[in-house]
Amino acid sequence: MIKTILITLLLALFGFGLWFWSKTDPQKLDFADRMAFGTAEHHQAPMTNIAYGDDARQKLDIYLPNQNANDASPVLIFFHGGSWRDGEREGYGFLGRAFASRGFVTVIADYRKTPRVRFPAFVEDTAAAIAWVHANIAKHDGDAERIFIMGHSAGAHIAMMTALNPQWLAAQNLTTDVIKGVIGLAGPYDFLPLTSDSSKIALGHWPDLTETQPITFARGDAPPLLLLTGDKDTVVKPRNSKNLSAKIQALGGKQQLQIYPDVDHADIIMAVARPFRQKAPVVADVVRFINAR
């Protein structure tokens, strides 16, 4: 009997291990967040798989806070990383829960990726997702006049491109004034020459590569920026955030730069999940930035 129980437990553990390691890194992080000890973060059940375009990748999920029905909540739209090639919104429930529980209607938006598409398709998707949210979020108790956008890595690149270069939202009959602030986590903003295979595939075909760089479109009247990075990031070096911060400041724009000590490229997004918040105060810094506006 005991032997049978032990074998059953071992098989169950083996099966769980196979299941767990088949998941993407964000999905593993989301699982760890769900299973973490401590008080759960309260929010309403998310609405998932909402189309903002015709492509299968043009989908978004909405995480709703527990809120006073008389008040519309600020809106945070998040775009995930993955070298313009990988990633999926389904892995980022930990981020949706974190910010919905702090009073924000939180949207996790997916977008088309390489090799199916290349620049500027993913920037066009970013603008389309923002336009959908602006037009529809009031139905979900979100305030369309208080939209903030946020991204990690490649997601920070496309978010920043959309906020700084007015042409992408203009194609959606909007101005960048609809964005009240941009939060970039370890974003590539000034990374010429292209050195990684993923960046060459995503951007290398463009005739003028400076037009793929957010820093090219830095301007004094841009939405306020919060640039968060880690001093141990070797994937997207902190100089990207430092250079954009300096240029926006020189042009008279509003920006804040925070460089976290002993934080690398993965740590900065891990710090949003409950088990890893000791890595960096990312959640607190983002909440403070949004509430100040």
TrEMBL record:
Keywords: Hydrolase. Residues 60-247 form the BD-FAE-like domain. One of its GO terms (molecular function) is hydrolase activity. Gene3D superfamilies: alpha/beta hydrolase. InterPro entries: AB_hydrolase_fold, BD-FAE-like_dom, GDXG_lipolytic_enzyme. Pfam families: BD-FAE (PF20434). It comes from the Bacteria. SUPFAM superfamilies: alpha/beta-Hydrolases. This is Alpha/beta hydrolase. It comes from Sphingorhabdus wooponensis.
